[in-house]
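2 proteins. here.
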Amino acid sequence: MSRIANHPQREELRAELARNVVLAELSPDATLELEPHLMIVDCRKGDHLLLQGTQEMEQYFILEGVMKRVVTNPAGKEMILRFTREGDMETSYAAWRLHTPAPYSISAVTKARVAKLPLPQWVAFLERYPPIKSIFEHEVMRHMSDIMAHIITLHLLDAPGRVRRFQRKLPEFSDILPKKELASYLNLCAETLSRLSHRGKIQLP
């Protein structure tokens, strides 16, 4: 991990942060205030940013690669709740506000780079910048709405319907997700997903 100011690619990192859905509207002064709090983390495929059940939580801004939010039951069965890629964010803000453990894990689907800071520092920053807080809270609610829609989809749609909805709602992920991860997200076996892809339902990487 390293601070942006000490990173050899600091100008590229600053450009990536400026394109983030939450940070794009930051003023130069606010950017200067936030930057020293951010740590840059390079993740290998499978690395965890957040583990389900932990009490110490952070705010994440995705700079490169793809992350996933996943919940695991006591038997070890996983359910992928959402994918996140560069320009987006990840958080456990709701759990932190409720003083409950993190209800899911966040891990790298591909090689990834993330800027992070502790949630208490992020929330203190937001209190000083109400317009950014409003954008952030809107994104948190959008994530929750998307996850609920995904869970309903898994219960109500058949396999072709799930694939078609994915292609319609998340086309930007179609050519970058590993087949195993996509099949898990759609609650399909890899063979079923491959069969549907051969019928032209979806393009696989």
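next one coming up
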Amino acid sequence: MVNLGNSWDDVLKGEFEKDYYLKLREFLKKEYSMRIIYPDMYHIFNALKFTPYEKVKAVILGQDPYHQPGQAHGLCFSVQKGVPQPPSLVNIFKELESDLGITPPSHGNLESWAKNGVLLLNTVLTVRKNSANSHKGKGWETFTDRVIELLNQRQEPMVFILWGANAKAKESLITGWQHCVLKGAHPSPLSAHNGFWGGKYFSRANEFLESAGQEPIDWSIPQ
């Protein structure tokens, strides 16, 4: 079945045998054989592969993958090197520079964040080419809700960064008093002016982690 190659394999033990996931798997097999689906099937679970359960310091929730060629590679908001930065990511980098003085990189690949403890999780992990939300309601939400619930159960404090209505809707899953929830508008140009700018999510996340006796996140991104 699915092999993530780290602690998530134990944490999610049995999840991939559940009825909803088996139905989702059959749906995906058909979709990948008949249509162009993003990301590549070997990249679907990159968020979990890059950031083991016990290493998670912060969670950033996205919606579904980018649906244009070459963009999605399994990490929310991130694109592969050589692909122009999408507008939401440009705004994230602007807020990062305003908050921590980190110069935006020339690319949009966020693998360094993932390797530094930031789980970049979309709530739906696949999408049809040129068709946003096309895999919504097929079972991914059940799976990613379970991931959030399992993180919530962890004793070590972490930060959940929720941008936009879809991400904020997951706040009810985060009941652990030990965790920190930071909320803002979605960084999309359509909504960033409604409460994304000036949120200082990156410095506030690190302040919380340090107050909990943890190492802060290195938010810098190598060129």
